[in-house]
Design a protein that fits this description.
The chain has 71 residues and is mainly alpha-helical. It has one domain: Winged helix-like DNA-binding domain superfamily/Winged helix DNA-binding domain (Arc Repressor Mutant, subunit A, Orthogonal Bundle), CATH 1.10.10. The chain is 52% helix and 11% strand. α2 crosses α3. This is MarR family transcriptional regulator.
Length: 71
């Protein structure tokens, strides 16, 4: 993966690491604060989907989808 992808993931991962419960992409975006590389819930979901394929993120298929770190 590209360096930018790792930067986005690190920022998102930090938000998830502090969360007490699974979060939606919109909630993650709000908690990530202002960041040019994370500019929409769609971008958050895309990044997390890629990392879920690696087994680092659990995707909870609900409406809306929720995400949490695999520990």
């Amino acid at each position: 993966m590209r360096t930018g992808e790792y930067d986005r993931y690190d920022r998102i991962r930090g938000v998830l690491a502090e969360a007490e419960e699974p979060l939606t992409a919109r909630e993650i975006l709000a908690l990530a604060g202002e960041c040019e590389e994370i500019d929409s819930p769609h971008r958050v979901a895309t990044v997390l989907g890629r990392w879920a394929e690696r087994g680092d993120i659990e995707v909870i298929a609900d409406r809306p989808y929720r995400y949490r770190l695999v520990t």
